[in-house]
Amino acid sequence: MSVLFQTVINTGRLYSLRKTLNASSYCKCVTVRRFSDVPSKFKTFDEVVTQRRQEARRSIVVQVNSDSSFKELYSYCSKYASVSGVHHYKNNAEEHFMLIEFGSEENLKDVLRSCSSHHKDLDVMALQSPFLWFRAVSGKKEILTVPDDKSLLITNGTLPVDEDQLFAELLACETVSDQIQTLYDKTMLNDLGIRLRYMVARQLEIMFDSLYANIAVRPFGSSVNGFGRIGCDLDLVLTNVLTEELSDPEKRLVYQEKKCEGGRSPWQRHMELVGELLELRVPGVTRVQRILHARVPIVKYAHDLAGLDVDLCYSNMSGIYMSELLWLFGSLDPRVRPLTFAVRRWAQTVGLTNPHPGRWITNFPLTLMVLFFLQQKTKDGFVLPSFKYLIRKAEKDDIKLAEDNVNCTFLRDLNKLPTESYAQSSSNLQSLLLQFFEFYSQFDFNDKAISINEGTPVRKPNALPLYIVNPLEQALNVSRNVSYEECERLRTEVRNAAWQLESSSEGSKGDDWGLLGLLERRTTRGLKKLLRVGNSHRLVSVKDLFNEKEDDKQDSLRSKLQRLTKTDKEVDQSVKEMKVAMIKEERKEQKLKFKNSQVANEVYRIRRDKIV
Ligand code: CTP
Ligand code: MG
Predict the structure, then answer these.
(1) All structural domains of the chain
(2) pLDDT at 596
(3) Could you tell which of 235, 308, 480 is best to mutate to test the pocket of ligand 1, judged by most ligand atoms within 8 Å of the CB?
(4) H or E stretch including 185?
């Protein structure tokens, strides 16, 4: 990855999309697949990405006054072009937006030609972008023409599921497998979330089009690999795709090129420019941070209009192929994604993962751990084949090289796999989750490395505490940052989780049965246990406990608890109060200033552990 942003010759063939699938059923089949569905036909990653990029090319995002602006906006736009669908969402500032998809890219151009304008009164340099706003009309109201069957496809579509509601639904599930499936269905990145991410990529492409001959901005990572949850960050990569047509040696008139002079990497300089352009020219972009001296230089920013945090890097084609690989494994069996969601959520709950970079494991290696576990040949059979099997099955069209000649050749069309090479296990999600924890409880982390290439444990080439082989660059360890202490914590937590899941799935269903026992925040759980009185399953109000009067001071906590015992109806309220108190506490912590973020993270982590 040292020579980055190098030219990638686009040798991939163009996939024709099956026209029989309409957009909505397509999206559903791409993003929502339940265990009970029988996958009849696998899609390739390229097909999905092409579809999403095309959608973005015929869509705009319009800021409106509220969701009731739909009729006016629909009526206005449909005078100029056919509208395929309108989705509503709110950003973090509670401003309202509508993502409108038109029938074709031509339609969109017609709309922009006839309707869009710039804000004359402001001191700005005009720029075209797919992010617009809807001006209110003064004076006479227009007659609105909206067919009865047209309405918003989704309202408030990027709002994460309410945690209390989610936990109530998990509580009401029949089985742990249902809980795992529900967690996945309710928290996975939805269609609108994916569309918005492609819109943010498209916005950059439009801006760069005027500066570079053939630049593409593509999402990668959890936004596209099938393991993203609502609100996940957007990873973007800027690539210079010099197509065969553009570099045709038969053509005799060739453009003069601007060569970059000076010692520094030309692309580092281009990324500096990108940082400037983002700050100066791109609507919605705020808080631009340039991290250009890192091994993989990136520009981080927040997109306020889309409500997203973005990491932009360049020419990281192996990141895209890695996303493709994860997407393929996730598509092969409908248990893979829900299981991974449960594991990722559990790891977040017990503090194994952390949104800030540090010496702990992150979601990507954790996902590789789940895939590796699913490759194991147990008495119930295996779920996934090894990666080397996909490599062996690759055909001519699958040959791909990323930067530094990293070989990213593997079978892309899963329809070509023999059916006996995957989904041979009949275990349900509940038993897979338990087996996952048991498998890693017994895993020999001291001597063995995790390699999805082999599908079996391999010898560790060095003494790093956790070794997870990078599937595309096997000499690299994707968890090299993980410290000995964090690896020990991982081992302890998988053992605890195995025990917890086994014991909470037996007998009567308490309020932390099955998955709930693994997902509830430890602090909430600890407090709940503390506040539970006798066997009556009751809680006391936090306010009552801490706002004590003078004459209460002599009381022991136990007698106070007994006096303050609440009825079952007040339990929910008490839990809510506890959560608010904890959030306030966390905010207080956030206000403290530390020397740098690494020190801050360590302090938060130690504190969190102490609470537990
Ligand atoms: N990646 C990689 N090698 C690594 C780390 C990351 O190839 N050592 C690639 C993977 O394709 C990964 C992507 O970069 O999916 C983005 O990394 P990251 O944002 O850390 O993980 P995500 O999968 O996007 O998960 P999250 O939801 O936590 O962002
Ligand atoms: Mg990411």
Answers:
(1) 334-495 (1.10.1410.10), 522-611 (no CATH)
(2) 52
(3) 235
(4) helix 176-187
